[in-house]
UniProtKB/TrEMBL annotation, chain A:
InterPro entries according to UniProt: HAMP_dom, HATPase_C_sf, HATPase_dom, His_kinase_dom, HisK_dim/P_dom, HisK_dim/P_sf, Sig_transdc_His_kin-like_C, TCS_sensor_his_kinase
Superkingdom of the source species: Bacteria
Recorded catalytic activity of this chain's protein: ATP + protein L-histidine = ADP + protein N-phospho-L-histidine
Protein name, per record: histidine kinase
Residue stretches making up the Histidine kinase domain: 247-457
Transmembrane segments: 12-34, 162-184
Enzyme category, top tier: transferase
HAMP domain ranges (all copies): 204-239
GO CC annotations, alphabetized: plasma membrane
TrEMBL record, chain B:
Name the UniProt record assigns to this protein: XRE family transcriptional regulator
Signal peptide start and end residues: none
Modified residues (4-aspartylphosphate): D51
Domain Response regulatory as annotated: residue spans: 2-116
Keyword terms, alphabetized: DNA-binding, Phosphoprotein, Transcription, Transcription regulation, Two-component regulatory system
Domain OmpR/PhoB-type as annotated: residue spans: 126-224
Matching Pfam families: Response_reg, Trans_reg_C
GO cellular component, one term: protein-DNA complex
Gene Ontology annotations of biological process type: regulation of DNA-templated transcription
Residue spans binding DNA: 126-224
Length: 457, 225
C-alpha cells in the first residue's frame, strides 16, 4: 500500500537505521584510514633507513675514490643479486646518466632529498619495466648527481588494497547497519505503533485495553507497565465515577421525591398555615440531608484529587489525640468506653485528610457500637511503618461484605437507620490511598477492627 | 446592615437579596467584577458578599484591589470551590471569612453578622469578656457566672470564648468546627451538639436560666439573661 510505504519512509525506524548506518560507516572509514596511514608511515621509515644506509656506504666510497669509486661500487652492486633490490643512478649535473640501473634521470627530481616517482627500471634479462621507486637524490661536491632508491611497489599495492578493503568494508557495514538498524528501530516503532493503537482504542471507550508486556523487562516493558497502570487507574476512576453517579442519583432522588410529594399533597389539601409549617420543616430536613450528601461527595472528590507529592510532615499522634478529644464527650454520653494508646508518629500527609479519616472511623465506631460498649484507638510505630487501629465491639461487618463496605454509597444497614451519606468509609479509603497506606477491615470478635498501615516512605 | 452583593449568578443573587431584605438589611447587587470593585470603593457598606468566580475581574482580584485601595470593609467570600487552599488564598487576599457553595442562608447570615461585629470590636484588646453575669478572664483562663467559678476543659474554654465573642448572634456548627477544631469538614453525627450541651451543663447551675439557646436549623446563640 502506498500509505504504508510513505509511513515507512517517514518512520522513525528508517531514520534510526540511517543514523546507525552513518555512524558505523564513519567508524569503519576512520579505523581503516588510521591503519593505512600507520602502515605506510612504517614502510616509508623502513625504506628510508635502508636507502640511507646504502647511500652512506656509496658516499664513503666517493670520499675515498671520487666519482670513479662510486661508479665502480654501483656496477658491482648491480651484478650481485640481493634480497633488497636497490636502484642507483649516477648522472652528470645536467642529468646525463653515467652509470646505474635507472634508464634516465627523472624529470621532476630537482632538489636533494627523498622523492617518490615511477620510472623505467632495468630488470634482469628482460630490458626495462615501469616501477614505483622511492629514492634519495644527492648532489655530489663536483656537481655529479646521485640517486639511490628502493622499490616502493608494495606501498602502491597497500594503497590499492586499502581502497578496495575500504569500499568492501563500507559496503558491508552499510548493508549490515541498514538491516540491523532497521530491525532494531522497527522494534521500538512496533511498540510505539502498538501503544498508539491501544491508546486510540482506549480513547474510543474500550477501557479494558492494555499494552502487551514481554518477558524482557526492558525500557519498552517498563513504559508499557507504567501506561497500563495509568489505564487501570483511569478505568478504576471511571468505574467509581459511574457507581458514584448512580449511587448519588439514587440517594438524591429519595429525599427529593419526598419533598415533591409533600408539596403536592399540601397543595391538594389546601393546607392551613400550621400544616404548611410542618411541611416546610420536614422539607427543610430532607434538603439538609441532600446538601450534606453533596458536601460529602465533594469532600470525597477533593480527597481523591489530593496529590501525594504535596504532602508535608504532620504529627499523626496529635491529629488522633485531637479527634479523641472531640469524641470523648460523645462516647461518655453514650456510656461508652473510649480507650486510646498513642505513640508519637510523624509522616508526610495532609492534616485535613488524616483528621477526616480518623474522625470518620471514630464516628463510625461510636455510631455502630451499642451503649455500654467500647472503642479502642491505638497508634504505634512498628518496624518501618505506622499502624493505626480503631476497633469497636459493635456488630462488625460480615467478611463477605467488607470489600463492599469500602465502596461508595454502601450502607450495609438496609433500614438506613443511622444518619449519614454512606460515604464515610469511602472517604477513609480514599484518604488512605492518598497517603499510600493500606486499609484492612477485620473481625474484632466481636466488632469491627480497622487497621491502617502507613509505610514510611 | 447595608450590604453589597457581587455575584454573577442571577438566581443566587435574587434569592440572597430577597432573603436579606426580608431580614431588614439593605442590599445592592452588582453582577461583575469591574462594576463590583467600583461599587465597593464608592459605597459605604457594612459588609461585602463577594463571589470568587466573576466575569470581567475575578473575585480574588477584586478583593486584592479593594484592599490595595485601603478599604477595610469586611468581605465574605463565596465560592463553589471549597478546598483548604482556596480558602487560605481567599483569607490571605484580605477576606474576612469564606463560605463554600452550597451553603444555607442561615449560615450566610450568621457569618455576615460575625464579620461585621468582629470589625467593630477588634481594636479593643480585651483580656476579659463579659456577657450578662458570665465573665471570662482570658489571661487567668477562668470562667465565672455570678461569681461562681466554672471549671472548663481547654476546648470548652475556647468554645465559650467564641460564643461570648459572638454573643447575641447565631453561631453555626460549621463556624464552631472551623474556629475551635480547625476542621474544614463536618465531623459528623452530633459531635458539636454534645460539646455545646456539656458546656451548657457547666455554665447553667440548676435553677439558673439557660444562656445558650439552640436555633433550629441554624446553630446556637449565647445571650445575657
Amino acid at each position: 500500500m502506498p500509505s504504508d510505504r510513505r509511513h515507512l519512509l517517514h518512520s522513525a525506524a528508517l531514520r534510526g537505521a540511517l543514523w546507525i548506518t552513518l555512524i558505523a560507516l564513519l567508524a569503519t572509514g576512520v579505523a581503516l584510514t588510521v591503519q593505512y596511514m600507520q602502515t605506510t608511515r612504517l614502510l616509508e621509515a623502513r625504506t628510508h633507513a635502508l636507502v640511507d644506509d646504502e647511500a652512506a656506504s656509496l658516499l664513503a666510497r666517493y670520499r675515498a675514490d671520487g666519482v670513479r669509486g662510486i661508479a665502480m661500487a654501483i656496477r658491482r652492486q648491480q651484478d650481485v643479486p640481493r634480497v633488497n633490490e636497490f636502484f642507483y643512478l649516477l648522472a652528470t649535473s645536467n642529468g646525463e646518466p653515467l652509470v646505474g640501473n635507472l634508464l634516465e634521470w627523472p624529470v621532476d627530481v630537482e632538489q636533494p632529498g627523498y622523492h617518490s616517482f615511477t620510472t623505467k627500471v632495468a630488470s634482469t634479462g628482460e630490458g626495462w619495466r615501469e616501477r614505483r621507486v622511492e629514492a634519495r637524490a644527492i648532489v655530489l661536491p663536483e656537481g655529479f648527481r646521485l640517486l639511490v632508491g628502493n622499490l616502493s611497489d608494495e606501498r602502491q599495492a597497500l594503497r590499492d588494497q586499502y581502497l578496495s578493503s575500504l569500499v568492501w568494508s563500507l559496503l558491508a557495514t552499510g548493508a549490515l547497519g541498514l538491516a540491523l538498524g532497521f530491525w532494531y528501530s522497527r522494534r521500538g516503532l512496533a511498540f510505539v505503533d502498538a501503544a498508539s493503537a491501544t491508546g486510540e482504542s482506549f480513547l474510543q471507550g474500550r477501557l479494558e485495553e492494555r499494552l502487551p508486556v514481554s518477558e524482557r523487562g526492558d525500557e519498552y516493558d517498563r513504559l508499557a507497565l507504567t501506561m497500563n497502570r495509568a489505564f487501570e487507574e483511569v478505568e478504576r476512576l471511571v468505574g467509581s465515577l459511574r457507581a458514584a453517579t448512580e449511587g448519588l442519583a439514587h440517594d438524591l432522588k429519595t429525599p427529593l421525591t419526598r419533598v415533591r410529594a409533600r408539596l403536592e399533597v399540601a397543595d391538594l389539601e389546601q393546607a392551613d398555615a400550621g400544616r404548611m409549617h410542618d411541611v416546610m420543616a420536614d422539607s427543610r430536613q430532607d434538603l439538609e440531608t441532600i446538601l450534606q450528601l453533596i458536601e460529602d461527595v465533594l469532600g470525597l472528590a477533593r480527597v481523591e484529587a489530593t496529590a501525594v507529592a504535596h504532602l508535608a510532615p504532620v504529627r499523626l499522634d496529635v491529629i488522633v489525640a485531637e479527634a479523641l478529644e472531640l469524641y470523648d464527650p460523645v462516647a461518655a454520653e453514650r456510656d461508652m468506653e473510649l480507650v486510646s494508646r498513642i505513640e508519637p508518629a510523624q509522616l508526610p500527609g495532609s492534616r485535613s485528610l488524616l483528621a477526616q479519616m480518623v474522625t470518620n472511623l471514630i464516628d463510625n465506631a461510636i455510631k455502630y457500637t451499642p451503649a455500654g460498649g467500647g472503642v479502642t484507638v491505638a497508634l504505634e510505630s512498628i518496624e518501618g511503618a505506622i499502624r493505626l487501629v480503631i476497633a469497636d465491639n459493635g456488630p462488625g461487618i460480615p467478611e463477605a461484605q467488607r470489600a463492599q463496605a469500602l465502596q461508595r454509597f454502601t450502607r450495609l444497614d438496609p433500614s438506613r437507620s443511622q444518619p449519614g451519606s454512606g460515604l464515610g468509609l469511602s472517604i477513609v479509603a480514599a484518604a488512605a490511598r492518598v497517603h499510600r497506606a493500606s486499609l484492612k477491615l477485620d473481625d474484632n470478635a466481636p466488632g469491627l477492627r480497622v487497621e491502617i498501615l502507613f509505610s514510611r516512605l | 446592615m447595608k450590604l453589597l452583593l457581587i455575584e454573577d449568578d442571577r438566581q443566587t443573587a435574587e434569592h440572597l437579596t430577597r432573603g436579606l431584605k426580608e431580614l431588614g438589611h439593605s442590599c445592592d447587587h452588582l453582577d461583575n467584577g469591574v462594576d463590583g470593585l467600583a461599587g465597593a470603593l464608592a459605597g459605604q457598606h457594612d459588609a461585602i458578599i463577594l463571589d470568587r468566580n466573576l466575569p470581567g475581574l475575578d473575585g480574588l482580584a477584586v478583593l486584592t484591589a479593594l484592599r490595595a485601595q485601603g478599604s477595610r470593609t469586611p468581605v465574605l467570600l463565596l465560592s463553589a470551590l471549597s478546598q483548604v487552599d482556596d480558602k487560605v488564598a481567599g483569607l490571605r487576599a484580605g477576606g474576612d471569612d469564606y463560605l463554600a457553595k452550597p451553603f444555607s442562608f442561615q449560615e450566610l447570615i450568621a457569618r455576615l453578622e460575625a464579620i461585621v461585629r468582629r470589625r467593630g470590636s477588634e481594636n479593643a484588646a480585651q483580656t476579659t469578656l463579659q456577657v450578662g453575669s458570665l465573665t471570662l478572664d482570658m489571661l487567668a483562663r477562668i470562667a465565672r457566672r455570678d461569681g461562681r467559678r466554672i471549671e472548663l476543659l481547654n476546648k470548652e474554654f475556647q468554645l465559650l470564648e467564641y460564643l461570648m465573642r459572638h454573643a447575641g448572634q447565631v453561631v453555626t456548627r460549621t463556624m464552631l468546627t472551623d474556629a475551635i477544631w480547625d476542621y474544614s469538614f463536618n465531623p459528623g453525627t452530633n459531635v458539636i451538639d454534645v460539646h455545646v450541651s456539656r458546656l451548657r451543663g457547666k455554665i447553667d447551675a440548676p435553677g439558673e436560666p439557660g444562656m445558650i439557646s439552640t436555633i433550629r436549623g441554624a446553630g446556637y446563640r449565647l445571650d445575657a439573661v
